[in-house]
Amino acid sequence: MTRWIGSWLSGPRAALEPTADPGEPQRWRGERLGLPQNGPGSVASLGSRLAALVVDVVLAALIAYTFTVPNPPLNWSLVPWFLITASMVSFFGFTPGMLVLGIRVVRMDGAAMIGPFRAIPRTVMVGVIIPAAVWDADGRGLHDKAVGTIVLRMR
User: Fold this and answer.
1) Any idea where the domains of the chain sit in the sequence?
2) Which of 9, 80, 132, 134 is the most core-located residue (most Cβ within 10 A)?
3) Is the pLDDT of residue 80 over 60?
């Protein structure tokens, strides 16, 4: 009875990791998830995720510009960005920017493919910015937590 009460009163950390000492601080992002501190399989840094997003946005703007020449693409850049991000994360787990920077999106349950039912809502939430700007101690944004994914290093 005490363990059952403790698991839901102590919050999600106790539910995910019942053997962890709640008083002991996490030493690196992803430690409580069993991820390495550095190298392949470790949590991607905020800087690499932001740089990958910038690469994807520039690529989307260039694609949109080819259809709007001589005018700037303005908000039309969102269309190719959404299509590229949702489709590539769904089937491959990364966007062109993520591939360049050596990071990828993986499912927390270990399944090989993200799939459209997770990639599309994740992409919409990244586009809204607010969920992507709020993250936890493991480096997972609200958009990743909502769909059960995490961004990890590939190399």
Assistant:
1) 31-153
2) 80
3) yes
